[in-house]
Amino acid sequence: MKRSVLTRYRAMAYATAVMLLVLCTCMVFKYGFGMGKDLTLVVSQIHGVLYIVYLIFAFDLGSKAKWKFGKLLWVLIAGTIPTAAFFVERQVVHEIEPLLAAETPEPVKA
Q1: CA distance to 51, 70, 86, 103, per residue, from 15 (Å)
Q2: Which residues of 39-75 are buried (b: 16+ CB within 10 A; e: fewer)?
Q3: Are 14 and 58 spatial neighbours (Cβ–Cβ below 8 Å)?
Q4: CA 29 to chain centre
Q5: Alpha-carbon distance 38 to 60, whole Å?
Q6: Distance CA 65, CA 71 (A)
Q7: Of 42, 58, 47, 51, whose CA–CA distance to 6 is shortest?
Q8: pLDDT profile of the chain (110 residues), mean per 10
Q9: How far, in Å, CA of 91 to CA of 110, rounded?
């Protein structure tokens, strides 16, 4: 597995998590205070697109890391629970980093 697989997963995990927090804030303003209806629509659509890309990258990482179905499902669902993607991303990095370090070839010495 290449490091780029983990890097793009991490980028999408952060982007999805931040947009979900923004969406939750917009929802509070929309339903709690009756304002920001149009902004909520735009933010929800952006989050939806980012979440689809997050699903693709998380599935790619999970298939290359050979995760069990339960773990893969938890990582995929983390993009729908506010703040969960931050914690799940951290766990995934701690799990995958040693695998990447073990696969990195040592430089050839002359």
Answers
A1: 9, 23, 10, 28
A2: ebeebbeebeebbeebbebbeebbeebebeeeebebb
A3: no
A4: 25
A5: 34
A6: 11
A7: 58
A8: 90 95 96 94 96 96 93 93 93 90 69
A9: 38
